[in-house]
Amino acid sequence: MGIAALKTLTPDHGEIKSVRTDDAFLRRGVSRALMAHITHHARSLGMTRLSLETHSTPAYAAARGLYEHLGYDYCDAFGAYGDDPLSVYMTKTI
Description:
By secondary structure, this protein is an alpha+beta fold. The protein is built from two helices and five strands; from the N terminus they run ββαβαββ. The protein is globular and about 35 Å long.
């Protein structure tokens, strides 16, 4: 139905690397469930912050809307990321 990946940046900061839902399962809560699972797992590892990078293009508006709804705020680039007009960065204390 979908996949998600978590990367450890520091012991207390993780990066959500990917959240993808198979086209056959769109609009069924798969991405929301994956985000909940990643958040739970990150907390179990002792992380207190999650961040992500996503695209700024219209094709990713639904993803950004989901992240906003889940409490992620826009932030500056983090980790190895730099300024990129096609990217936006978001973060959340968990």
